[in-house]
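Write out this protein's structure.
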Amino acid sequence: MRRWSWERVVSILLISPAVIAIAIFVYGFIGWTAYTSLTKWDKLLPDFTLVGLSNYRKLFAHQRFQIDLRNTVVFTVLFLISCLIIGFVLAFLLDQRVRGEGIFRSIYLFPMSISFIVTGVVWRWLLNPGSDELGSTGINALFDMVGLGFLKTGWYTDPKIGIMAVAIAATWQMSGYTMAMYLAGLRAIPEDLREAARVDGASEVQIVRHIILPLLQPITLSAVIVLGHISLKIYDLIVSMTGPGIGFATDVPAYFMWDTTFRGNHFARGAAIAIILLVMVAVLIVPYLAWSIRTEAEL
């Protein structure tokens, strides 16, 4: 009994520094940010006069923030759908035991090894529309060379499709990650199930639709959670690739938060944006965590 109690005390002492650090630097700062969002701090010097939810009301009435929320929805939808489709197709092809699978797998995963800053710089050049004086560059120049000049567009400089160009760059980086998740799921499906379905006369399309996809639902859910929280708080790709864009065409809440807080010195409004981002991510993550805990308890 004494030994068990001593081991328990030692365990608590070992984990207490990490618990204290998390309590201060994570939850403590979250609480401080929430409190700041309820104050009148609108200049460089602090002003902790409480104004309630006034900052949130002004924020949702702000035209730029409304555009940012719309951009976030468009970016998230395009990013998720593209990554899931491309990732599944690549995983399905690799699951056919093709020759050189390791090389292809490394190539698909390579974009994930670099940062969004590097991705933004690369795709800023690739999607540069060029100019009348310098001519076409990047992908537009490729369209000219293959006789598809009618496909040229302004990419991230076009207010109508600017956020779509950013989604292309993000998809390029994260589709390999989705591929790896799906490939692991495919390799976990017993081959006997597929053979039994083929014996019963099922086509490959029917096998994918009625066997593979249903069994991959937990993988799909996990991918949606991971990719979703990345899309909601995307910042570095915007900074290195486009900035807020023409008419805030590529602006997002995270960039608006940085711009408001550190350029405009509107600290209370910036804190309000941060709390809204936290709530958006929590709405996505918390139900998944609750489902995971309940599933593990049932097992």
